[in-house]
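Researcher: Re-running this chain for the archive, since the previous output was lost when a drive failed. Same request as before.
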Amino acid sequence: QVQLVASGGGLVQAGGSLRLSCAASGRTFSSSAMGWFRQAPGKEREFVAGISRSGGNTYYADSVKGRFTISRDNAKNTVYLQMNSLKPEDTAVYYCAAGARVSYRVDPYDYWGQGTQVTVSS
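Model: Regenerated structure tokens:
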């Protein structure tokens, strides 16, 4: 099993930056693809970014491409989401997830973190 703990959220002004972290426990982190999703009030959970097991392949939603960067450190069992040029529409609860492969869908992920709130003020 994998347990995920997300952190790093907060309140930031538009144009600012935040870095989210997701720490994983368990020995299977390096064999798991990782994803970041977000969910705004009244909306469905949506894919933000994903990274392959080795970190060699990354994937982004069009809405964050060029502003967000996903990375992982398998030695530290941690995946990161660097978020720059934040916009009010980025406001949401951000979740990390682990699965066998990167997917834009929620279903293929086996494990989820508890979520961390990101609020971007205008």
